[in-house]
Each structure stands twice: as structure tokens, then as C-alpha cells.
Amino acid sequence: MAEYDLSKTIIPYLDRHLSFPLLAHLVETGVFPADEVQVAQYELAKGTNMFDYAASLFEQIYPNQEVPKEFEQKRVNAVSTHERLQQEAQAVLDVIENPDVAQALRQDKNQNLQYLKDNYKLTLDQITALYNFGKFQYSYGNYSGAADYLYHFRVLSTDPDLTISAHWGKLASDILTGKWDIALEELNSLREAIDSRSPAPFASVSSNTNNTPAVDPALSQLHSRTWLVHWSLFVYFNHPQGRALLLETFLSPTYLNTIQTSCPWILRYVAAAAIISSPTPTSKSTSAPQSSRVKNAVREVVKVIQMENYQYTDPVTSFLMQLHVEFDFEAAQKELQQAEKVVSDDFFLGDFHDEFLESARCLVSEAYCRIHQRIDIGDLSNRLNLPRDEGEKWIVNLIRETRMGQDAKIDLEKNLIQILRPPQPVYQSVIEKTRGLAIRTQTLGAAIARTGVAQAASTASAPQSITQPVAVN
Amino acid sequence: MSRFFRQAGDSDSDSDESEELMSSGDEAPQAKPTTGAKTAMSRFLRKTGPGADSDSSSDSDSDSDEDSDSDSDVPKPKKGLPLRSDSEDSETEEEEDRQGIRIMSAQEKRLAEMEGTGKAMENALKINDWVSISNEFDKLARMIQRQHNVSEPIPPFYIKTLLSLESSLTSAIAKEKEAKKKMNATNAKALNSMKQKVRKAAKEYEQDIAKYQADPDAFERDYTALITRDAPPAPTVARAAIGTAAVTNEDENGGFKPVGKGGRTMLLTAEGIFKSLQAVQEARGKKNTDRGEQIRILEKLLELATTTYQRIRVLLALVSSRFDYNSSASSHMPTELWISAQNEVDQLVAIVASNPAFIVQEITEDYDDLLERSPATEKSGIVRIRGSIISFIDRLDDEFTRSLQNIDPHGTEYVDRLKDEKTLYSTICRAQAFYEQTKQDDPLSRVIMRRLEHIYSKPDAVVHALESSAESADIKPAITLTSSGSTSALIHSLCVYLYKSGNSLHRTRAMLSHIYHYALLNDFHTARDMLLMSHLQESIHSADVATQILYNRTVVQLGLCAFRSGLIKEAQATLQDIFTTQRVKELLAQGVHQQRYQVLTPEQEKAEKQRQLPFHMHINTELLEAAFLVSSMLVEIPLLASIDSEELKRKAISKPFRRLLDFADRQVFTGPPESTRDHIMQASKALQDGEWEKCRDLVQSIKIWSLMPEAASVKEMLAKRIQEQGLRTYLFTYAPHYNTLSLSLLAQTFSLPLRSVTSIVSKMIWNEELAASLDQAGGCIAFHRTEVTRQQQLALIIAEKVNSMAEQNEKALDAKMGTSGGWGDRADGKSGEKRGEQVQERRGRGDRTRGGSRGGGRGRGARFAQGLGNQMGHTSQRAG
């Protein structure tokens, strides 16, 4: 399954620290040899300030060698830096944590700064110390601390670049500490920030970004969005409401474009999310009201997948393709088998394996029933990758709980499902067609009346303006 | 007459005659349409001037025996006449150039002429007729100017006249002031203008006047001395020659050489290079200069040139005079001239590239043309010379294209000419290398653009050939085929350079060429994405015509690419717009369209002709049409079968196809297919009848497919598509007659695998195109046909009509309100969308009428572009 593993494509778009969970997951699944992954982990850790972790990894990889000396030294360095930065930051923190100050702070950042400067002699440099300390904490793995400091910094700072950078840092910290609600909030505000401030160049806390100066603003926005798309996967696949939100976000035109142009592999997650959140008999009662975008997600996703078929395919997307474009149920069944494995191995989708399977079966049977009149139960359960008995149970459940309930009948003798779909009567379609007419005509009349009044008013005030066009004509 | 003479004369007349043939051949079609416009008329007239000239001169040369007789006779009686026409003047001048012996007589003649003019002026002065004085003075000034051109000194007579005029002017003005209203208005005007003219002339010859005033005799002595130095054997020989015609010709044989040397060749020495260069440059662009002669002089000068500076100067002048050789815009440069110009540009580039101390710039500080310059004499150590190599390259390339436009593309000459592209390409590459070396960004991007335009539409093999010649050159550009690996990588790197350069026109063109290249390589998706992301379809209608043509070519190529890759729907949508205009050839600049209701002015016609692409760049329109019609057939026929009401049938996806189909339907008798269209029409009918095998055979027997690369695979793809669409058509057409239909039978009939039959049928059911469902157990399709009674049908129709009426009302209100969506919120977004489309359509129609009245290719291209832009926007959502 290694060819379908996306870790390699995704990691370049992640922060160093965010990649650790991915690598850890790879060790578990065993898609790649464990020692290779460990080497990769070690290489990653070397670049951070997490020396103990790096050293332990080193010991694991090379059990017989001594841990390099440089770690010790760096460690000493880091500790001293830590102390220095902490002192700097503490000064600011003392002031901010003072309840008086907290009350005095307002929305306006400039005013706040002025206030702090006047009353507590806090300068901008000192506030930046918060940022530095937060970043440092992040680098050695103290994510919750980093999140705190970066939050305070963001409240106070006026520097747009550093603020954005703090945004990213905070998001990463929240993700790594697993506070999904906060992370979601953070994600949304970061998204707004990126969408609203297009012209400014983009700078990220991450070390992997190519910091080319003076890039095209549109390009940098695309970069930020690509990054955001990748980072948000963490949030969306962990937050309870995440899948719907993912569809909501990723299917909006701007992000859809981003995915199409710079990272088509995200389509796997979009497709999976669409399948997972499609209504199933079991989930139906619990699910909250969904927006139209989520409801029609499968259809939309199929359209996109079809369009991007030349760029990216994997079992998940081709399952949808086979099912809803080619209507080749046999091929869809095969793809589903593969997709099942892919999903269970995937870092983000792993937890949703069962739901995915359930929904996918639902989709298959729905399509199947819509097209067919008489269905052999054995055949259908075959299509669903289910043993015969289980399949029968499953289908009965499906018929009982979905809308096609009254149309479908099971013929036990012949082991068939009969679906009777009476054609829509003509009067029904006439009613459909003429439904909106009255309202439309009404609004039309209202509009005419309104313009009549407006025109009368304008003739009264300025008769010349009416005569003029007549003369021209 | 001596053999030498005859030979020279013969060859001269030969070339003259051939030129004349050429020019008259070119002028003949031009002369016809001139009736309309005045400007063209005048140009035509002007052009006949030199034609007549060469006529007479070639006559005089070929049989100089009698001619010299008549020549010497003719000018004599005219000598004193004040009024002489220009052509006669030029005649004598040319003769003088050709036969060194007559120089003296001409000089004399001119002097006599001047004196005659002076006399006339004096006479006019007596009767105070300032109008004629003014005229005469103008004539005199012109003569002096000519004197200048042949670098002869100013005769003292002129100075004298000038001085006397000045004095009489002042007195006349004084008189005029005293005596009121004595002069009429025109006269007074002439007087005033005279005053200014004389003042100007006096200023021009200030030095000479001062010298003359100081010592008139000395001035005259200087003058005669100068004249005699220029021509040692002096007037006596000339006089004798004129007097005794044929006999002296024999004598001259011996005496000719020294005369020739003294008269002209003497100037062509290494020292006098700059002087003669200047003379040539001053004569440039004048009406009566013999361009061939000029080139010959310059060629000799090039041989004589010793220093780098001299060589550069002479080369610059030589190349531009070669380009001057043909003044008319319609004819092309002779091939030999072009080749030598190309060689010289190569030389020039090589010289400048190897001598970094010399820079050729378009704008320099003023410097003295007559001085030798070297890096040592310049302050900065760099010699800057005025000139523009990039414009030479541009011109070279343009001339190449123009010659290809004019040569018959089916002859061997065309192929021979095409071979020169190789050398041209290497010249361009060399220039690119040079500009890379000197880091001149603007010309570099121009040169790269030229290079790109030579290779973007060519298949790999041709590009390899071109590149191999470029790489064998001594200096190579940074981007070559070997350095980039493959053709597309080469084009990619060239394009990337142009994207980064600031010029937006280059960027656009590079983008289009890049897309074209991708389309050529059958990389449809990349090409389409690039086209959509470039957002060119929104702005292309404001681009220049050449770019619009490139855009059209790119789009058409994209359509063909889609067709080759089997993306029938995309191909149809892409090609649709250009075919609806019915001006495919014109929009692709591959032929001038015959306008039915309007006549193009000659200028427009000429401009159109100049825009035409050379034949080897053409996209075969017949192939294009075949691709379009076949894809239309595959899209349209199933659709036609699916709709049963007459009303809906009128809405066609592809109008051109539908029109042809209707026409074919009306035919009483259809014979065996001959043209491509016949084939496709009969194939369409076969497809309608469900005879997919006949349809396939007909489509595959179209001969034009052989022109398509990968013809076999395309045919195979078409066969498969025909099978599928045949199945769909069959189902649509015959569904009402069946209750159930076995899938396996269908698979057998259309020889498709059962699986794909099931898939196609399922798709149709899913999309609600077919009211049916599959019976898995029985392996058949069960149709749910609902019979509609007459009453029900009418009810449906009336519902529809009421609907459209409501829509009409909304539209009418929209039109009245001016803006769409200004009134009231619409309950459904759909109608709003539709309205938007209609508005756009309306706008498109407005554009059409405007374009029609303008008649230029521009309006048409714009409309096409706009239409296509919409189309492409609909085809795919990704415009981001």
C-alpha cells in the first residue's frame, strides 16, 4: 500500500513538529520499514530543541554508539537561552496578568500599546520578547506554554507579519496539545486573516518554508492557503463537527481552486469526508441539520474528481468515479476493497474506517437500487463486500430505514428485491412547473409599483431629466 | 562601343528589367483597387516615378550607340530653360552615375540651369513679382541640395544670388512700408515667405557668405580649383564626348578608367570611407537614389574598411540599405539580398560580440560622423555607435515571413526558401547569445520571442534540425536543446524567461505559444489549465491582431488536441465558436475571406494580406472541419434522438452541424460521398438509424485523417465512440417500441462488452435521460413508458408557456430598469443565472454589428474571443 501513502507528499507542507505524529503513525502501520522511519524521526528531531527525544531516538537507531556530544552542549545552550527569554517575557507577563491592566485593555491595539507604555513602560521590543519565548518553547516541545505566550503576544502586537506568524504557531501548538475546539477557532481566525490580507508577503513560523523575499502576493496567498489546507486536516479529522466543516471549507471556490492547483492529493480527504458525512441509516437520527453544500457534497466531489482525474487518482477517488461516473459496480467494489485498506492506514482517516465503510456501502446500494428494478440479494451483498447473511441483514436494515422503504419489497422465495417506482403522474409535474409563478409575478408587480412611485417622484423634482432622453431618442 | 561597356550595360539592363518585371508585377494588382481611396492613388503615382526612370535608363544603357547620340542632343536645347521636370533631371543624373564621362556635362548643365533660374528671378524682381521669385528660389534651393548630395561645392553664383536677393528684399520691404496697399495679398505673402527663406538660407551658408563677402574672387577661385581637382580631365573631354557621339566612345575606351577613378571610385578609399558613407546616408530615402548602386558602393566600402569602427559603421549602413531596397510593403526582398543581409548581420553580431569596447545603441550622444573613433579616443573607453541590431534581426525575420507569404507554397522555390530558416534561426540564436553576454534585457526578450516563434509550432524533428544548426555556431545562447534536454523543456525555459521579463505583450504571446506547444504534444489538461488560468479570454479582444490570431490558433490547436485525446465533448465545445463564425480561414489568418455585403478598402485588404501566415504554419482547415463535424455528430445525434418535441429540437448545440444536417435531409437523392462533409453527413444519418458499422466505416474512410498524427489510434478511438454513441442513439430512438430489452443482445449488436453496455445504460438511467430500470435477475432493461394523453400534453405545454411568459416579463422589466437584479429578490438563483447569460448574449450581438461595420479583422477576432471565453468558462469551473 506504500504507493498510496500520502505522508511523503503531505509532510513538506507541515511544520516539523506536526510531522512527528505522522511518522509515529507510520511506525505503527508498518507500511514502511520501521528503522527507516526512525531515522527520519531522528533527522526531524535533530533540527528542533528537543534534545532528549533526539538522543533517545539516536540510541534506538544506533544502540551501540555513544550519543553525540553536541546534544549536551546544545542542551546547555538551550537552557541558558530559555532562562534569558523567560526573564524578558516574564516582565511583560507580570504587567499583563495584573487585573487592572486586563480591564484597561481595549479593542484598539495602538491604544493598548500607548496605555502600556504610559503606565508600565512596556515597549514594543519587550512585547516581542513574548513572541520569542513562545517560539522557543514551541521548539523544545512545550506546546501549551507556547500557545499561551503566543496568544498574549497576538493580543498586543501590531506587527502584521509577526502576528500571522504567531497565528500559525498558536494553531500548531493547539493541534499538538489536542485542544480541538480552540484549534478550530484558531483555524478560522487564521483563515480569515489569510483571506483578508492578500497583499502582504507570507511568513510562517515553520522552518521548511522557502523564504523567498518579495514574492507575488497572489502566489504567497496560494502558499498560505495550501499550508492551511494541510494543517487543517489535523483539526477537521479530530473535531466532532470536522467533516462537515471540511466540506464546507474545501468546497468553497477559493479553497477548491487551491486544492486543484497546488495539492490535488487533498481530494482523497475531501472524497472521504464526503462519503463519511453522506447520510446513512444509522447516523441519520443523530446528525444535525446540514447545509446544502454538505448534502450535495458527493455530487460536487465527483465533479471535481472527474475534472482532476488526470492529475490525481487513488482508490478512494476512483471508487467514487466508478460508482457515480462509470456506474461499473464491479470495479467500484474492487476499488472499495482497496480504499478500505488505504483509509485504515491513513493517519487522518484511520479512525473513521468503519464509518467510511458503512457510508460507502450505503452509497453503493443507493445507486444500485435507483438503477435496478430487480436485485439479487446475493449479488448486492457481494457488491458490498459482505457475506451473504450479513448482507441480507444489512439490506433489510437499509430498506427499513431509508426513504425507498415503501417501494422496495423482498421476495424471499427467489431471493430478490423488487423495487417499484411508480412514475411521476403528469399533474404532479404540472404543479411542479407552475409552483413559483404566482410569487414571481407578485414580486414583479411590486417592483413595477415601486418604480412607478420612484419615477413619479423624480418627475416631480426634475422634469428635465425625463424630457432629455426623449429628445435623444 | 566597347565590349566592357556592352557587358556592363547588358548586365545592368538585365537586372533593371527583372526588377521592373517584379515591380510591375506587384504594382499591377495594386493598381486595380486604387479607384477608391485617394491615398493609395497618390502612392501608386509616386511609385511609378522610379519605374519610369529605370525604363528610360535601361533603354539608354542597352543601346548606348544611338542613345548617347540622342542623349547628348536632347538636353542641349533644354539647357537654358528654367523649367525642367524632375524626371528629366534624374535621368541625367543617373546617366552621369552610370557613365562617368558625363559628369562634367551634367555639372555644367546644372550650373547653367542655376544661372537660368537666377535670370528668371532677376526678371521677376524687376516687375516685383514675388510669387514667381519664391518659386524660382525654391527650385534653386533644390538644385543646391542636389549639389550637396553629389558632394560638390556650392557654386559662388548661388552665394551671389543669395546676397543680391537679400538686399533687394530689404529694399522691397522698405518700399512696401512706404507705399501703402500697393501689393496684392498673395504677393505680400510670397514676399514674407521669401524673407524667411532667404534668412534661413543665409544662415545655412553663413561661412561661405562671409568668405565670399571678404573676397569674392578668392572664393570663385577656390570653387574652380575644387571642381578641377574632383575631375582632372575637366570639361574639355566631356564636351568633346557630347559633341561627337559615337566616335568618341571608341576613344574613351582608353580614357574611361582614369575618369571613372577620378569621378567616383576615388572616393572609395580607406580614408574617405566616412565621407562616402555620409553621402550614401544622405541620399538614403531620396526619391531618385539608385538603391542597387548604393549597395554596391557600400559593399566596396566594406572591403576597404580596416578598423573595427569602420566595419561596424559600414555594416550598419549596408544592412539598412539592403532592407531599403524594396520600398513597397507588398513585395518581398529578393532572396539573394536577404541572404547577404543575413550574413552581414551575422558579421555585425560577431564583431560586436568579440569587441566589448564597441557598443551599438539606439540612442547615443552626438558624435562626428566623419571622424575615426576607437576605444582609446573615447572618454569612457567604449565606443558607442548609433544603430540597432535588434531591429535588423526583427526586420530580417519579417522579411523572411513576407517572402514566404509571397512565394507560391506548392513550388520548389518555397521549400528552398524554407531551408533558409535554419540560418535565420542560428542568426537569432547568435543574437540571443550576444545579448545575454551584454545583459541587455529588452532586446534579449525580443530576440527570445523571435526564437520562440520559430519553434513553438514545429514538431520535434524540425526543432532538432534548427537547434543543431544553432549549436554549431561559435557563440551559443544559454538555453539550447542540449542544455534543456527536450523540445518542450527548451520551449518551457524560453517561455519562463519571457514570463519573467516585464513586457506584457511578450508574456501574453509566450503564454499562448506555450499553450500551443502543449496542445501539440497532446497534453490537453495542462494546456487547458494554462489557458484558463491565464485569463486571456477576458482580455484578448483588446490585444493586437497578431496576438488575437495567435490566440485563435492556440484555441483551435487545443480543440484538435482534445479530439486526438478522445475528449469529444471538449473538442466540440472548443471548436464550436470558431466554426459558428464561418470565417475559420480568416480568423486563423490562412486566407482572406470573401465578404459578401461589404467591400474592403485596399488598405484593409493589404493589411489583411500582410497578416497571413506562411503556408507551412497553417493548420489544415479541412482536417479541422472534419474533427469538428465528427465531434459534433457524436454529441448532437444522441441528443437529437433523445428529444421528441419539435420545439426543443430547434435548440441546437452546434448550429453549423445542424445546418448541414438539415441540408442533407432535404436532398432528394444522395450519391456516394465525395467530400469530407458528405462522408460525415451520411455517417450521421447512419448513426441516427442505428447502423453504427456503416457510420464507422464512413467516418474512417475520410482521407483527411491521414494528415493527423497518430491517425490509426484516432480512428480506433472514433470507432469506440461511435459504438457508444450509437448505443445511446439506439436506446433513445427505439425505447418507445420496447417493453424490455436484453442487455446481452445490445452488447452483441453494438459489439461492446456487456459491462460497458450496463455502465452506459446505468448512466442514462441515473441521469434520468432514460425512463427505465435494470432487471438484474433477467439481465434486461425494463422501460417505464408513460403514455401522455393529448390533454395532459397540452397541460404540460401551457405550463411551460406560462413559465416562459413570466420570464419574459421579468426580462422586460430588467431592460426597463437598466440593471439586472436591481429589483426584488429572486426566489431561485437559476433564473438570475439565465438572465446573466442572456445579457451576455445581447452584448455579444451588439459587438457583432459593431464589428461588421468596422469590417476589420479585429472586431471579428474580439467577438470570437469573447464567445469562447464564455464557453470555456462554462466548460470547466476552474477559472482560479
TrEMBL record, chain A:
One of its GO terms (biological process) is formation of cytoplasmic translation initiation complex. GO terms for molecular function: translation initiation factor activity. Keywords: Cytoplasm, Initiation factor, Protein biosynthesis. Residues 235-424 form the PCI domain. SMART domains: eIF3_N, PINT. Pfam families: eIF3_N, EIF3E_C, PCI. GO terms for cellular component: eukaryotic 43S preinitiation complex; eukaryotic 48S preinitiation complex; eukaryotic translation initiation factor 3 complex, eIF3e. It is found in: Cytoplasm. SUPFAM superfamilies: Winged helix' DNA-binding domain. The keyword Protein biosynthesis applies. Its main location: cytoplasm. HAMAP family: eIF3e. Component of the eukaryotic translation initiation factor 3 (eIF-3) complex, which is involved in protein synthesis of a specialized repertoire of mRNAs and, together with other initiation factors, stimulates binding of mRNA and methionyl-tRNAi to the 40S ribosome. The eIF-3 complex specifically targets and initiates translation of a subset of mRNAs involved in cell proliferation. PANTHER family: EUKARYOTIC TRANSLATION INITIATION FACTOR 3 SUBUNIT E. Belongs to the eIF-3 subunit E family. Component of the eukaryotic translation initiation factor 3 (eIF-3) complex. This is Eukaryotic translation initiation factor 3 subunit E. The gene is INT6.
TrEMBL record, chain B:
Residues 825-850 have a biased composition (Basic and acidic residues). Residues 188-215 form a coiled coil. InterPro entries: EIF3C, EIF3C_N_dom, EIF3CL_C, PCI_dom, WH_DNA-bd_sf. Residues 11-20, 56-72, 88-97 have a biased composition (Acidic residues). It holds the Pfam family eIF-3c_N. It is found in: Cytoplasm. Residues 868-880 have a biased composition (Polar residues). One of its GO terms (biological process) is formation of cytoplasmic translation initiation complex. One of its GO terms (molecular function) is RNA binding. GO terms for cellular component: eukaryotic 43S preinitiation complex; eukaryotic 48S preinitiation complex; eukaryotic translation initiation factor 3 complex. Keywords: Coiled coil, Cytoplasm, Initiation factor, Protein biosynthesis. Residues 615-788 form the PCI domain. Residues 1-103, 812-880 are annotated as: Disordered. Component of the eukaryotic translation initiation factor 3 (eIF-3) complex. Component of the eukaryotic translation initiation factor 3 (eIF-3) complex, which is involved in protein synthesis of a specialized repertoire of mRNAs and, together with other initiation factors, stimulates binding of mRNA and methionyl-tRNAi to the 40S ribosome. The eIF-3 complex specifically targets and initiates translation of a subset of mRNAs involved in cell proliferation. PANTHER family: EUKARYOTIC TRANSLATION INITATION FACTOR 3, SUBUNIT 8 EIF3S8 -RELATED, EUKARYOTIC TRANSLATION INITIATION FACTOR 3 SUBUNIT C-RELATED. Belongs to the eIF-3 subunit C family. This is Eukaryotic translation initiation factor 3 subunit C.
